[in-house]
Inverse folding.
C-alpha cells in the first residue's frame, strides 16, 4: 500500500504519460497559437455567442497561463498549457441548475471534444480518473482540444438520487440525463468555441466509458451529426436491464440459504482462465453447452482453502454466473461468468461478490438508487427483496423506461453522415457484461447489407480479459492514446483501425504487466442475424 500512496502523492504529472497523449503538440503544425486568447475569450463575446441559448448564464471567464493548475482539494497539476476557463449555468426544468465548464487552450488544434461522465452522472472527477482510460479535460487540453464538461445537475458522484423530486420521479431530469442534455450542451459549446477563436471547428470527438459510453451510444443513435468520431468503451447502454444484472449476485446472497465462500469463486476463476486458454473457448458461460459442462465437472475435483466445491456450492455459483433470469428461464441480461474477477484487485474495491465489513455484499450506489426509481421509493430496502418481487418489478416497469434506453442497433443514419464509431469492451469487464456489446454489434450488422459495409463506420474491439476502463485490473485495456489516435486517423484520413493497443499496468509495483494488440472483431458466419431487408 505504501507504493500506492507514493503514487498518489506524486500524481500531479500523471496526465503527461504517453498513454494519455495522442497529438504531438511539440509540432507547430499541429496547432494554431492564440496569444490574444484572454482578450478573445471575453464575457461579452461568450454572451453574444449564447444569444440563441436562453437557458444558459455566464458565471465567470478566467485565463490560466501555462504552468501549474490547482483546484481545491485536488493535487497540483504541473506542465499545463495555457487555457481559458468559461463557467456557465444551465437551468433545467425550472428546478435544477447544471454546472458547465468550457476549456479553451491557447494552442488549439481546431478540434472539439465532449467530456463524458460515468455511471449515473454526466460528469466525473478528473482527479479520480487516473489509471483509467476515461478521457478527462486535462488530457483534452494537453492534446490541444477545446472541450466541454457538463454535470447536467447530476453532480459527479456515483449516485442517482437526483432522479427523485418529492415523492415522484423527475422525468425531465431523466430525459436530460439520458440523451438530450449531452446534445444540447454540445451544440452550445461549439457555438462558443467558434465565436472565441473566430474559426470553424475542424472535427469533433467524444470518448466515454460505462455510463459515459452510454452517452456516446445515445449520440450515435439519436444525434449522429454532433460528432465526427465517437468511442464507447464498456457501454452501459441498456441501463434498465443492467440495474437487474448489477444487483443479481446480491439478490442471490439475500435469498439463498447456502453461502459459498469467496475462495471457491476465486479457485473457479483460476481454472476457468486456464481451461479457456487451453481449449480456445471464447463463448460466454452457458452451463447447458458441452464445453462448459466439462469445465463444471472439473470444478468438483479442485481443492480450496474452504474445502472442495460441493454440489450445493456449484448450484449457487451457476446461478450467480448465469446472470438474471426470470422464473420461466427467460434471460433478462447477461451475468459474469466464472472467468470474471468479482472481488477487489489491489486497491480497487470493486466486484459484485465483494463482502463489506458489515457482512453484506457491495452494491453500486447508482444501481440501487435507479432500482429505487422503479420502486418510486428513495428509501427502499433491497435486502428484503425476494426473487418474486425482483421479477415483478422488472416486468411491470420495463416498457416505462424503454424510451430512455440507448440500445437501438440501427446505425444507418450515422453511416449516412459518414461518422465513425469505435466500440471497445474487455471480455473481463466486471461491471458491464461484455456479451451486451457483442450482442449489440451483431444486431447492428443486421441493418447493413454486409459486415464489411457496416465496418466503414462502426468497428468493435474486445480485449481479452480487459476490465472496466481500468489499466490496473487483471487484463489489458485499450489505451486513451491508441483509441483516440486511431479514431482521428479514421475520421480525418479514412484509415480504418485494424487493431488497437491495450495495456495492463501495476501501479503498486510501478511496472507494465502486459501490452497487447487487439484485432478488430469480425463475425463468424454462424453469428449473423437476419438482415433488415429480409425481415
Amino acid at each position: 500500500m505504501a507504493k500506492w500512496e507514493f503514487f498518489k502523492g506524486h500524481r500531479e504529472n500523471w496526465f503527461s504519460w504517453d498513454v494519455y497523449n495522442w497529438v504531438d503538440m511539440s509540432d507547430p503544425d499541429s496547432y494554431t497559437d492564440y496569444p490574444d486568447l484572454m482578450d478573445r475569450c471575453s464575457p461579452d463575446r461568450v454572451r453574444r455567442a449564447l444569444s440563441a441559448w436562453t437557458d444558459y448564464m455566464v458565471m465567470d471567464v478566467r485565463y490560466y497561463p501555462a504552468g501549474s493548475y490547482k483546484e481545491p482539494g485536488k493535487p497540483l497539476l504541473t506542465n499545463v498549457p495555457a487555457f481559458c476557463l468559461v463557467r456557465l449555468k444551465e437551468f433545467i426544468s425550472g428546478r435544477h441548475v447544471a454546472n458547465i465548464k468550457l476549456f479553451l487552450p491557447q494552442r488549439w488544434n481546431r478540434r472539439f471534444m465532449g467530456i463524458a461522465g460515468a455511471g449515473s452522472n454526466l460528469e466525473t472527477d478528473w482527479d479520480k480518473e487516473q489509471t483509467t482510460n476515461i478521457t478527462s479535460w486535462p488530457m483534452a487540453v494537453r492534446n490541444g482540444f477545446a472541450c466541454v464538461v457538463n454535470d447536467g445537475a447530476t453532480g459527479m458522484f456515483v449516485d442517482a438520487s437526483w432522479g427523485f423530486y418529492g415523492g415522484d420521479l423527475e422525468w425531465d431530469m431523466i430525459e436530460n440525463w439520458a440523451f438530450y442534455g449531452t446534445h444540447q450542451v454540445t451544440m452550445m459549446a461549439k457555438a462558443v468555441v467558434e465565436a472565441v477563436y473566430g474559426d470553424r471547428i475542424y472535427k469533433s470527438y467524444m470518448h466515454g466509458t460505462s455510463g459515459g459510453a452510454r452517452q456516446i451510444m445515445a449520440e450515435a443513435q439519436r444525434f449522429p451529426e454532433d460528432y465526427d468520431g465517437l468511442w464507447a468503451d464498456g457501454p452501459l447502454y441498456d441501463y434498465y436491464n443492467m440495474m437487474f444484472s448489477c444487483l443479481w449476485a446480491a439478490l442471490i446472497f439475500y435469498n439463498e440459504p447456502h453461502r459459498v465462500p469467496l475462495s471457491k469463486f476465486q479457485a473457479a476463476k483460476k481454472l476457468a482462465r486456464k481451461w479457456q486458454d487451453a481449449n480456445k473457448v471464447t463463448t460466454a458461460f452457458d452451463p447447458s453447452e458441452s464445453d462448459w459442462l466439462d469445465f463444471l465437472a472439473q470444478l468438483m475435483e479442485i481443492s480450496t482453502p474452504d474445502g472442495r466445491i460441493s454440489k450445493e456450492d456449484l448450484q449457487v455459483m451457476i446461478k450467480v454466473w448465469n446472470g438474471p433470469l426470470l422464473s420461466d428461464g427467460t434471460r433478462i441480461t447477461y451475468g459474469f461468468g466464472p472467468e470474471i474477477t468479482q472481488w477487489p484487485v489491489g486497491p480497487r474495491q470493486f466486484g459484485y461478490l465483494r463482502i463489506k465489513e458489515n457482512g453484506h455484499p457491495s452494491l453500486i450506489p447508482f444501481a440501487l438508487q435507479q432500482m429505487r426509481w422503479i420502486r418510486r421509493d428513495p428509501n427502499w430496502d433491497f435486502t428484503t427483496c425476494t426473487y418474486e418481487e425482483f421479477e415483478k418489478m422488472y416486468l411491470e416497469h420495463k416498457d416505462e423506461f424503454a424510451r430512455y434506453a440507448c440500445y437501438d442497433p440501427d446505425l444507418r443514419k450515422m453511416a449516412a453522415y459518414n461518422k465513425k464509431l469505435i466500440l471497445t469492451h474487455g471480455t473481463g469487464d466486471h461491471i458491464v457484461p461484455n456479451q451486451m456489446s457483442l450482442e449489440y454489434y451483431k444486431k447492428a450488422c443486421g441493418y447493413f447489407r454486409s459486415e464489411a459495409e457496416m465496418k466503414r463506420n462502426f468497428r468493435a474491439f474486445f480485449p481479452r480479459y480487459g476490465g472496466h476502463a481500468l489499466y490496473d485490473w487483471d487484463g489489458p485495456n485499450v489505451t486513451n492514446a491508441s483509441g483516440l489516435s486511431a479514431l482521428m486517423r479514421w475520421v480525418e484520413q479514412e484509415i480504418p483501425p485494424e487493431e488497437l493497443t491495450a495495456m495492463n499496468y501495476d501501479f503498486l509495483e510501478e511496472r507494465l504487466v502486459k501490452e497487447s494488440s487487439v484485432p478488430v472483431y469480425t463475425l463468424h458466419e454462424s453469428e449473423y442475424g437476419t438482415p433488415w431487408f429480409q425481415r
